[in-house]
Amino acid sequence: MKTETINNRNASIKRFLNPLQSLREIILDAKQQENIPLAFFGSSARQHLFYLEALCRIYKNINNKKTFKKLRSKFKSLEDQLGKVDYYEAFHKELSADKNFPTVLLNQLFQNYQTELNNLYSLLLHDDWLDEKEPRIEKSILRLDKVEWLNADAEKKAIAKTIRKEIKKILKDYKSGKLTFEKLEAGVHEFRRNIRWISIYAQALDGLIQIKTDDEPRNLQKYLTAKVVESPFNKMPENKAGLSPILISRSAFYALSWMIAESGNLKDEGLMLICIEDLMKETGFVDNDKISSEAKKLAKNVRLTPSGIKSKMKVLVDEFIYRDKVLDILRIDLKNND
Description:
Blueprint: H1 3-6, H2 11-30, H3 36-41, H4 45-59, H5 65-96, H6 103-126, H7 136-145, H8 152-176, H9 184-204, E1 209-212, H10 226-229, E2 246-249, H11 250-283, H12 291-298, H13 306-323, H14 326-335
Parallel strand pairs: 1-2
Helix pairs in contact: 2-4, 2-7, 4-5, 4-9, 5-6, 6-11, 8-9, 8-14, 9-11, 11-12, 11-13, 11-14
């Protein structure tokens, strides 16, 4: 399908076609490289897959559920695999900087990285991302061509309602105790993952969500750091389609960004310990009863213990939800748009 054709689509389908076009170009470039999976991993593919997955999460609730569930499955599988490669690559890079880190563990870490890179290549082949006759990109576009999109006003209201319900569920799960921080993956990581989607939606919707100025409430000013305010992820895409936008409060959206970053830092500290412990188990580096204590010694950049990570996370989120009511502000903003 030619780019000229893509650029003539309506605003709804173009939200999908833009990242799909970027992925097409990345794949074409990767196929020219000696190491296809490495070239694909080193690109911006994961960002575009996040956008596509985010759009499918929204549209499966307001349009053809079956179509968008199938599309999301393929996008998510590839994004998840890129995440696995990134996990080992990032920790290998960080731990390699420590000259005293055991070579046997570094070698195992690099082996795991290579394994996941090979798995990435297998997935690219299996799911037809590299196929010449019927590439996954074209299959996805054909599915999107068959969708009966809502008109702009109805779609705007449905999107706002869908995101608002998602925020409501986060609040319900946390306040009911269903979502806790007892476990890193099911707690810290899950909470961050849930609130991060809200931020990704703002980028993926290609200008439909815009920030409105507010009076910067005093309790939210601590979140408005220079790093947060200047983040490219907090600059909304231009509303090129000229649609009536969904408006959300600037301070609350920036506070959301701050919480995503802080919880990400805490999550990474916990994952570092888990990664080293797993490497020790895989190599038999020490006896099982010594793994925890030895891992803490080697994780020199980890400031907090697992229990400390959980405790700090709870303090931050309690303030974020109960005292500063950041998610409530966003929910009310969305209510005013649906």
